Structure formats: structure tokens, C-alpha cells
């Protein structure tokens, strides 16, 4: 199918959708870390993340969390609503890991007193710097009203996903959410956008603390494909076969 490419990011490509107000989100096997300094291919990652993200978005919709997700189209693509992406990554942390351990001298794996919400400005060339609500509202990236929707939604997602993952033997250490403004007629509402997958979540096995996410790629731990497959298997969405990268729509020049 010939579709116009709208945007290509590090892990996904957005194409023009079949109806106005829709996009097709294509999941790549490309993997990046440390703000694109480390690059590689995780075979089948796109297929697995598509299936995992579909499952989690549908489960969130069941509890009334609004998302951009419409439906999965095939092994690598899903139909989504077109939204105005808010240039802020909202990170919810339950356990010390990654950058918070380095910044605050916390031992990796130590539980935090409560879920902690952090904000990062989506700007690759700046390394996605951590910012405060004051920065966000002063520079107009999001309003106080936007944040009043985003933060409770992020904490609600955290509460739900923590329980869901615990049920399949995984600890939700932390995760990143992106949000978008969805316009319907004159009405605007904030919805969860992008994806929820082992690319955007830290997931540890509850018994062994084995890492089951992109940290395996970041830290050269090996077994990256197997970890993603295991997350999909535990969630009950592991595809029968996982083709390597391929099958992109033909681009319209």
C-alpha cells in the first residue's frame, strides 16, 4: 500500500492513515540507547512491541484511560488517532534504577518511598533534559490544566500496570509515558500516546530481579530478543512467528 510518511523516529515510523485524523504507526527493529549514541537491531522487536503495546493500551482503555490506539493492523502496524504530541516525557519511578540512582546516589533496586513523577523535555539534540513544572508551563510546552490531566493519568497507569505485571511475575520498576492532545470537533482531551513496551518500561523478574527490558541492550547483557519474547509470552501475546524487519509500506515521494 502506498502511504505518505509523516515522521520517522528512532523506533517507529508514522504514515498517513486511511481516514482523516488517523495515522499508521509502524514498529521498527532498530534499537537506540544513550540518546542515540548506541544503535543496534533487536530482531523481531517491532513485532513484539506492537503486540505488547496493543495489549496494554486495550487493557488501559478497559479502565477508562484514554489512549490514541484504535486497533492493530498487522504484525508491525497499528492504527492510531492523530494527536498533537506534548513535548514532555512523563517518567514514573517505583524503584531506584537508571539515572535516578546515579543522580541521587541511590542503590539500584531500592524501593522508593512512593511513586515519583519526573519530566523530561523531548529534544534529542539536548539529550532530553530533565525539567520542572515551572519550565514546562513557562515555555508553553504544556499548561497547568494539561499537567492536571497528565499526572493523575500517569499515576493511574502506574497503579494498574504494576498490578498487571505483578500478576505475570514482573516488577514495574519505572516507565515513560507520552501524551497528546486529541481534538474532536471543538473539544480537546489529553490521551496516552506513543507506546508502552519493554522499550519504555523497566521490568524485572519478581523472583530473580533479572532485567526483561531494553536495559539488556543498553548494558550489553545479551539475551535481548529472548527477554522481549518472555514479556510477550507472560502477557499471552507472543506471536507464533516473528519475522525480521520488513514489509514497510511503499513511500509516496
How would you sum up this structure, described in words?
The protein has helices spanning 45-62, 99-104, 133-138, 144-166, 215-218, 224-235; strands at residues 2-3, 5-8, 12-16, 22-27, 30-33, 38-41, 69-72, 77-81, 84-95, 111-121, 130-131, 170-184, 187-193, 201-205, 250-251. By secondary structure, the protein is an alpha+beta fold. The chain folds into two domains: 2-82 and 223-247, Phosphorylase Kinase, domain 1 (2-Layer Sandwich), CATH 3.30.200; 85-205, ATP-grasp fold, B domain (D-amino Acid Aminotransferase, Chain A, domain 1). A hairpin with a 4-residue loop joins strand 7 and strand 8 (77-81). Helix 1 (45-62) packs parallel to helix 6 (224-235). The chain starts with a strand and ends with a strand. The model is unreliable at 249-253 (pLDDT under 50).
What layout of secondary structure does this protein have?
Elements: E1 2-3, E2 5-8, E3 12-16, E4 22-27, E5 30-33, E6 38-41, H1 45-62, E7 69-72, E8 77-81, E9 84-95, H2 99-104, E10 111-121, E11 130-131, H3 133-138, H4 144-166, E12 170-184, E13 187-193, E14 201-205, H5 215-218, H6 224-235, E15 250-251
Parallel strand pairs: 1-15
Antiparallel strand pairs: 2-3, 3-4, 4-8, 5-6, 7-8, 9-10, 9-12, 10-11, 12-13, 12-14
Helix pairs in contact: 1-6
